[in-house]
Amino acid sequence: MVNVGLKTFNVKKEEIKRKWFLINAEGKILGRLSTEIAKILRGKNKPIFTPHVDCGDYVIVINVDKIKVTGDKMNKKKYYRHSGYIGNLKVKNLEEMMKKSPELVLRSSVKGMIPHNILGRKVIKKLKIYAGENHPHGAQNPEKIEI
Hints:
This protein has about 150 residues and is an alpha/beta fold. Helices cover about 30% and strands about 15% of the residues. The chain has a four-stranded parallel sheet, with helices on one face. Strands 3-4 form a two-stranded antiparallel sheet.
């Protein structure tokens, strides 16, 4: 078969136009919200998506403290951290994490859905999370989207 002029498209850094999106997380389910945020951060919702280039947009998430989860995840889902010393494995469930810092819950959920490399570290910096209604990014004129 002969290739009839189909060429692979690679976007350049100069061609990327980034937008700002505002998402209200009130009443949204954690996992479903995280997947949509990860798609926008990576740029998978754009026709110019290139896997090895950061072509995604900025995302502002408000009202993270009012997020929902299904089932009995509030008690059964565990978050682990280790200090590096022997026997210092700390465990908290989702309910405790939501009381202490709901921003961390959403950030870790989204972080697990993006690449675990240099590109992923660049992409996660474009995620801005706030527990309340207010955010300091009004000058960027974020576009509200409903998920």
